Amino acid sequence: MNNKEEQVEIFDSEEVITFSDDEGNSYSYVQVACVEHDGEFFVLLEPADEAQAEEGLYIFKILNYENVDEDWEVEPVMDEKLANVIYDKFIEVYEAQCGGNCASCSANCPSKEE
Q1: Per-block average pLDDT, block size 10, for the chain (114 residues)?
Q2: Integer Cα distance of 42 and 46 in angstroms
Q3: Partners of 76 in the beta sheet?
Q4: Rounded to whole angstroms, how far apart are CA atoms 31 and 11?
Q5: Eight-class DSSP state of 100
Q6: Euclidean distance between CA atoms 50 and 102, whole angstroms
């Protein structure tokens, strides 16, 4: 993937996915985008529960992306610099696809803050 539009897939549908931790707790998220960076794949998720929506996006590294027949194994991106690179790729493509029509958009992007 050479250009940013090829490195970022923004999901149109609000598919909810649920992860479970080692203690059996379940967490549901809405898929926002998938981003490729340096040959690795990351998923941007937001909480499916509206009460948690103000928490923003979570970025997870997909550990087994190439195994399409398996459930994802993910780990949170804890490196702030890497998280910013992934987020910046997403925002650049998102804003290019958005077209700047903020009046009819419900997204919480940096353009709306201006």
Answers
A1: 66 81 87 91 87 78 84 90 93 76 56 50
A2: 13
A3: 60
A4: 7
A5: T
A6: 22
Q: Tokens at residue 34, please?
A: 């998938």
Please check whether residue 17 is in contact with residue 46, taking contact to mean a CB–CB distance below 8 angstroms.
Answer: no
The number of angstroms, rounded, from the C-alpha of 28 to the middle of its chain's C-alpha atoms is 13
Please tell me the distance from the alpha carbon of residue 22 to that of residue 51, in angstroms, as a whole number: 24
- Which pair of tokens denotes residue 36? 């490729």
Rounded to an integer, what is the distance from CA 64 to the centroid of its chain? 16
Q: Tell me, letter by letter, the H, E, C secondary structure of 42-92.
A: EEEEEECCHHHHHHCCEEEEECCCCCCCCCCCEEECCCHHHHHHHHHHHHH
**Would you say 18 and 31 are in contact if contact means Cβ atoms under 8 Å apart?**
no
- The type of residue at 21 is D
What is the model's pTM? 0.73
In eight-state DSSP terms, residue 3 is S
